[in-house]
């Protein structure tokens, strides 16, 4: 497949906005091409223009493309070393004024494994707190709203945590109330604004890799504003604040992409 022309990219971004409500202009061109190529092969369409015309009359294919665009991969305690750094940073902050009851957000959370992991971490540490689980896909959030994950999500989980926090029921795993009750699922597109403020922990893992530099910078500014002083920001392992960095963020662990807002930051 030849690279998409600017006209084709503009048409695809327009379709994304109409079909999903998401800001298509915030997506990297390379990301859109990677997602579109397998769908062209699957449908036999020779190019983007014919494929977009095809979408108008084939709802199942439109749903398939939206799924590719909106639902990232996830797993319980993905990159365990990141959660170890979080545990240490939260332990240092425990007991400080304003840190008795934590507010956290995981976005995009997909089917919720990351939010559940954070809730388990809070429970293991004896911390009070709630987690806002944010994603643009209502279908991805469906199981989490019912307090359930796919049973296959537990495949790599430590047996002790598996037995303590989940009840397996055929193809699903029910999350115990001590964890599920901490999580509030919310359908929201972060590129249109943050849904919360006063956050102690903000996980924005594997979101920036899909977005243009301009969108990344805008989201990072909003993320910093959403954090309390000393609040923790976690990015994906292949992401960085780089040139988007702001003076009020400092690395807690640069390798794990865990950052903290300055204690005097507004």
Structure explained in plain terms:
With 266 residues, this protein is of the alpha/beta class. It has two domains: 6-70, Orthogonal Bundle (Chemotaxis Receptor Methyltransferase Cher, domain 1), CATH 1.10.155; 80-261, Vaccinia Virus protein VP39 (Rossmann fold, 3-Layer(aba) Sandwich), CATH 3.40.50. Helix content is 41%, strand content 20%. It has helices at residues 6-20, 29-43, 48-55, 59-70, 80-93, 113-125, 138-145, 159-165, 177-180, 213-226; strands spanning 101-106, 128-135, 148-150, 166-169, 172-175, 183-187, 199-204, 227-235, 249-253, 258-261. The strands form two sheets. Strands 6-2-1-7-8-10-9 form a seven-stranded mixed β-sheet. The chain is globular and about 60 Å long. It starts with 5 loop residues before the first helix and ends in a 5-residue tail after the last strand. The mean pLDDT is 88.
């Amino acid at each position: 497949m030849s690279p998409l022309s600017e006209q084709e990219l503009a048409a695809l971004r327009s379709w994304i906005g109409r079909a999903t409500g998401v800001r298509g202009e915030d997506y990297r061109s390379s990301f859109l091409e990677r997602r579109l190529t397998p769908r062209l092969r699957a449908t036999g369409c020779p190019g983007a223009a014919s494929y977009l015309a095809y979408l108008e009359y084939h709802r199942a294919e439109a749903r398939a493309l939206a799924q590719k665009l909106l639902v990232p991969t996830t797993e319980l305690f993905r990159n365990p070393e990141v959660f170890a750094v979080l545990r240490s940073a939260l332990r240092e902050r425990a007991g400080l004024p304003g840190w008795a009851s934590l507010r956290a957000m995981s976005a995009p959370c997909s089917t919720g494994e990351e939010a559940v992991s954070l809730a388990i971490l809070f429970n293991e540490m004896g911390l009070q707190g709630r987690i806002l689980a944010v994603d643009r896909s209502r279908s991805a959030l469906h199981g989490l709203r019912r307090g359930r994950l796919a049973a296959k999500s537990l495949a790599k989980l430590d047996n002790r945590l598996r037995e303590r926090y989940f009840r397996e029921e055929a193809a699903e795993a029910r999350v115990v109330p001590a964890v599920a009750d901490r999580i509030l699922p919310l359908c929201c597109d972060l590129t249109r604004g943050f849904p919360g403020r006063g956050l102690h922990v903000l996980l924005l893992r594997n979101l920036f890799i899909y977005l243009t530099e301009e969108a990344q910078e805008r989201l990072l500014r909003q993320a910093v504003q959403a954090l309390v002083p000393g609040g923790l920001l976690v990015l994906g392992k292949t992401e960085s604040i780089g040139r988007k960095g702001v003076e009020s963020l400092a690395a807690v662990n640069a390798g794990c992409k865990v950052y903290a807002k300055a204690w005097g930051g507004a």
